[in-house]
C-alpha cells in the first residue's frame, strides 16, 4: 500500500514538472490527424516537425526555430488564406484532459510566426499573432500575478491557440506557434522558457510574398527590452512588457 502511494505521488510530481508541446492542428474547427508522430501509428500523418520532448528551449539554443531536433516530416497540411487555424497544446503526450495543458505558473506571451519552408535560417520569420497581457481577469492560482497573460488564456481555452492564416503567395510554409514562459526570468533571460512547434503547411491561392521578418535564434537576445526578462510578480508589470520579435506584421 505504502509503495503504491509513493508511486502515485511521484507520477503526480512528474506531471506538475512537465512542460508542453503542440500535438495536433485544427483547420476551421475540423481536427487534422494527430500531427506530432508521438502516438503509436501516427508517424504516417506527421506534419509537425520532429520534437523529442516537451522540455523548453532556452536562449541561445540553435533549435529556437523549430524545437529539438526540428527535422522535416512527410506531410504538409493544405491551408488557404483566411482559414481559422488552431494549434493544440498539451503537456502530456497522451493528452490526459484532466491535467492542465501547461503548468499555471508559466505566465507569458503566446505568439505565432510564419516562414517560407525554403528559408528558415534568414530574416524570414514574420510574426502574425501575439497575445501578451490584458489588465482584466485574474490568475487562477492567485499567485500574485496581476492581469491575464496569453498563457493564462491558453490554459483557460484548454490549450487551443487560434489564429487566422494570412494571405501569402502559394507555396510551402512553416507556422510556428510559440509560448514564452517567464516565471523564472525576473532577472535572467537564460531562465525564460520557450516552447514552439513548426507546422508544415501547403498554401494555395495567390496572396502576397512574405515581407522580411526576424532571424531565429539570433533575434531573441537577453538585451534589455529584448522581452526575455520580466518580473511577473510586480503589480501590472505586463502593461509595459513587450515580447521578443517586434510587432505583429500585417501581410498583404
Ligand atoms: Cu515548464
Automatic annotation (TrEMBL):
It catalyses: [(1->4)-beta-D-glucosyl]n+m + reduced acceptor + O2 = 4-dehydro-beta-D-glucosyl-[(1->4)-beta-D-glucosyl]n-1 + [(1->4)-beta-D-glucosyl]m + acceptor + H2O. Its cofactor is Cu(2+). Keywords: Carbohydrate metabolism, Cellulose degradation, Copper, Disulfide bond, Polysaccharide degradation, Secreted, Signal. Its EC number is 1.14.99.56. One of its GO terms (cellular component) is extracellular region. One of its GO terms (biological process) is cellulose catabolic process. InterPro entries: AA9 (IPR049892), AA9_LPMO (IPR005103). Coiled coil: none annotated. It is found in: Secreted. It holds the Pfam family AA9. Residues 19-234 form the Auxiliary Activity family 9 catalytic domain. Its main location: secreted. Residues 1-18 form the signal peptide. GO terms for molecular function: cellulase activity; cellulose binding. Lytic polysaccharide monooxygenase (LMPO) that depolymerizes crystalline and amorphous polysaccharides via the oxidation of scissile alpha- or beta-(1-4)-glycosidic bonds, yielding C1 and/or C4 oxidation products. Catalysis by LPMOs requires the reduction of the active-site copper from Cu(II) to Cu(I) by a reducing agent and H(2)O(2) or O(2) as a cosubstrate. Belongs to the polysaccharide monooxygenase AA9 family. Has a modular structure: an endo-beta-1,4-glucanase catalytic module at the N-terminus, a linker rich in serines and threonines, and a C-terminal carbohydrate-binding module (CBM). This is AA9 family lytic polysaccharide monooxygenase. It comes from Microthyrium microscopicum.
Amino acid at each position: 500500500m505504502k509503495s503504491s502511494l509513493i508511486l502515485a505521488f511521484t507520477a503526480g510530481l512528474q506531471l506538475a514538472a512537465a512542460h508542453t508541446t503542440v500535438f495536433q492542428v485544427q483547420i476551421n474547427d475540423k481536427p487534422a490527424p494527430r500531427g506530432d508522430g508521438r502516438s503509436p501509428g501516427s508517424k504516417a500523418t506527421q506534419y509537425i516537425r520532429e520534437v523529442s520532448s516537451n522540455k523548453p528551449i532556452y536562449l541561445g539554443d540553435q533549435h529556437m526555430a523549430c524545437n529539438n531536433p526540428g527535422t522535416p516530416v512527410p506531410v504538409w497540411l493544405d491551408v488557404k488564406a483566411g482559414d481559422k487555424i488552431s494549434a493544440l497544446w498539451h503537456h502530456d503526450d497522451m493528452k490526459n484532459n484532466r491535467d492542465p495543458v501547461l503548468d499555471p505558473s508559466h505566465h507569458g506571451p503566446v505568439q505565432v510566426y510564419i516562414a517560407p519552408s525554403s528559408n528558415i535560417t534568414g530574416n524570414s520569420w514574420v510574426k502574425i499573432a501575439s497575445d501578451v497581457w490584458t489588465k482584466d481577469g485574474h490568475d487562477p492560482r492567485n499567485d500574485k500575478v496581476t492581469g491575464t497573460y496569453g498563457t493564462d488564456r491558453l490554459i483557460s481555452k484548454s490549450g487551443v491557440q487560434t489564429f487566422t492564416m494570412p494571405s501569402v503567395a502559394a507555396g510551402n510554409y512553416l507556422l510556428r506557434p510559440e509560448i514564452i514562459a517567464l516565471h523564472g526570468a525576473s532577472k535572467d533571460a537564460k531562465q525564460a522558457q520557450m516552447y514552439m512547434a513548426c507546422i508544415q503547411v501547403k498554401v494555395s491561392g495567390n496572396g502576397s510574398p512574405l515581407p522580411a521578418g526576424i532571424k531565429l535564434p539570433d533575434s531573441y537576445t537577453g538585451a534589455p527590452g529584448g522581452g526575455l526578462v520580466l518580473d511577473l510578480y510586480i503589480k501590472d508589470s505586463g502593461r509595459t512588457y513587450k515580447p521578443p520579435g517586434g510587432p505583429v506584421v500585417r501581410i498583404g
